[in-house]
């Protein structure tokens, strides 16, 4: 379908384009590598490597962790920490009364 010159030209052009795309992909990969956030070191210290990986790779634990973080953020933003602690103390006191 193509002449020998056209085949060689297309082959060379394909190699040049493929090499250029490969180099660009490598460059973007290297540029895209980010540093580990400092808060993640704190999480690893508190949880340890095994527990951190369990939370990250288990959908149930990951969802629960996101809900806890989101709820904590909302409670903090709305200034409900004091009332929440007061209600918790009252409930704990009432529950202690039922047990004895």
Structure commentary:
The chain is an all-alpha fold. 86% of the residues lie in helices and 0% in strands. It is built from five helices and no strands. It has helices at residues 4-32, 38-47, 49-57, 59-77, 81-99. Helix 2 (38-47) crosses helix 3 and helix 3 (49-57) crosses helix 4. The termini are far apart. The model has no long low-confidence stretch (mean pLDDT 85).
Fold topology:
Blueprint: H1 4-32, H2 38-47, H3 49-57, H4 59-77, H5 81-99
Short description:
The chain is mainly alpha-helical. It contains 5 helices and no strands.
Proportion of residues in helical segments: over 70%
- Low-confidence segments, given as residue ranges, are none
Count, helices: 5
Compute the separation of the termini in Å: 93 Å
Q: How much strand content do the residues show?
A: under 5%
The backbone outline, from C-alpha atoms, is: rod-shaped
Major pleated sheet? none
Number of strands: 0
Mean of residue pLDDT values = 85
Determine Rg (CA atoms, Å).
29 Å
Q: List SSEs in N-to-C order.
A: HHHHH
Main structural class: mainly alpha
Which keywords apply here?
single chain, 100 residues, mainly alpha, 86% helix, rod-shaped
